[in-house]
Amino acid sequence: MKECIGKVPGLAVILVGDRRDSQTYVRNKIKACEEAGIKSVMAELPNYCAEDDVMTAVLKFNEDPSVHGVLVQLPLPEHLDEEKILNVLSLEKDVDGFHPVNMGNLAMRGREPLFIPCTPKGCLELLIRSGVEIAGKKAVVIGRSNIVGLPISLLLQRHHATVSIVHACTKNPEQITREADIVVTAAGVPNLIRSSWLKQGSVVIDVGTCPIEDPSSEFGYRLVGDVCYEEALRVASAVTPVPGGVGPMTIAMLLCNTLDSAKRVYG
Ligand code: GUN
């Protein structure tokens, strides 16, 4: 085993543009790094920057031996090609797990990704640590984004759930969701999930984050989830709140992935 005492894990964060929600997420990630003793570096680029500027920042962090994780906060401004940028990210530093090779390995049986995307990994951790049985259960995932819907559905399958994916074109989404033992929703539609959508005793994980104006809050807005929380509590056996549910788990998993990456380097 190589000597790793005194070595510090490092995370690089690239933020492009001025989206308030992305700024909040990034601020929270950097703060969590400070609290955990992980060194963080940040590259902030303006909304109108060129694709090459983002690529250059990624490549610089790829080469930096003090950086073990590189994260490009999504979504990127529309003129930038997200796929092209994520493709150049070093596979060994892809702590978000968004590189197509990591995602492909997550999808394929018998293969192991180097990193599992943080929000799905956090959802799974919540289920496991809360003693929720997954194997053989019916799970419904609402939304099919690359960041949450797709990887959480793959992860639940890996844990032997029977998984259905509900999306904007699904007919009778309410009926399908009502059959689920586990519901993971990431639609970004406030109050989409009413009590009538839920089976008695189900477990509901709300990954929805929709910013709504709120002059009384510190940043002028607050985040709301997909689930009608009070209603859902009357039917489900457990419901995660927004904020304070999955969000902190995403950050915790990012720290875990960064630490794992540093351990691979230092032994
Ligand atoms: N945007 C929303 N969630 C995430 C995330 O987990 N990672 C990154 N990089 N961008 C995001």
CATH class category label of the largest domain: Alpha Beta
Structural class: alpha/beta
Question: What is the general shape?
Answer: globular
The count of DSSP E runs of length 2 or more, i.e. the number of strands, is: 10
Question: SSE order in H/E notation?
Answer: EHEHEHHHEHEHEEEEHEH
Strand order of the largest sheet: 5-4-6-7-10
Second CATH tier, the architecture of the largest domain? 3-Layer(aba) Sandwich
Q: Give the biggest sheet.
A: 5 strands, parallel
* Poorly predicted ranges: none
Alpha plus pi helix count: 9
Bound molecules: guanine
CATH topology of the largest domain: Rossmann fold
| Overall mean confidence score, pLDDT | 96
Considering the protein shown, what is the CATH homologous superfamily of the largest domain?
NAD(P)-binding Rossmann-like Domain
Give the number of domains.
2
Distance between the ends = 6 Å
Radius of gyration of CA atoms, rounded to a whole number: 19 Å
Helix content: 25-40%
Strand content: 15-25%
Family: Belongs to the tetrahydrofolate dehydrogenase/cyclohydrolase family.
Function: Catalyzes the oxidation of 5,10-methylenetetrahydrofolate to 5,10-methenyltetrahydrofolate and then the hydrolysis of 5,10-methenyltetrahydrofolate to 10-formyltetrahydrofolate.
Keywords: Hydrolase, Multifunctional enzyme, NADP, One-carbon metabolism, Oxidoreductase, Photorespiration
Domain Tetrahydrofolate dehydrogenase/cyclohydrolase NAD(P)-binding: 117-264
